[in-house]
Write a structure and sequence with these properties.
This protein has three helices and two strands. The termini are far apart. A two-stranded antiparallel ribbon has the order 1-2. The longest helix has 17 residues. It is of the alpha+beta class. Helix content is 42%, strand content 11%.
Length: 79
């Protein structure tokens, strides 16, 4: 969750992109100001990193929290 005019949002996305590439994730940036329901829900809490319904961090990227989330889903090597 993000806002176009939010400098913290831009910083978090810039920090998240290399980590996402390493983890094989796709980053989708959703502007809460484009949807009244999202704006009401997230308001001043943005930026927020979500994985499904799980909130991993907000305001600043928490790399440890993102990695801990990923550790819950270990990848199996192909034979």
């Amino acid at each position: 969750m993000s806002r176009e005019w939010c400098h913290l949002c831009h910083e978090l996305v810039a920090e998240l992109k290399p980590l996402a590439a390493e983890l094989g994730w796709t980053v989708s940036v959703v502007d809460v100001d484009q949807d009244p329901l999202l704006e009401a829900k997230w308001d001043e809490r943005v930026p927020v990193v979500l994985a499904g319904d799980d909130e991993l961090c907000h305001y600043h990227l928490d790399v440890a929290a993102v990695r801990a989330y990923c550790a819950r889903f270990p990848l199996e090597s192909a034979p």
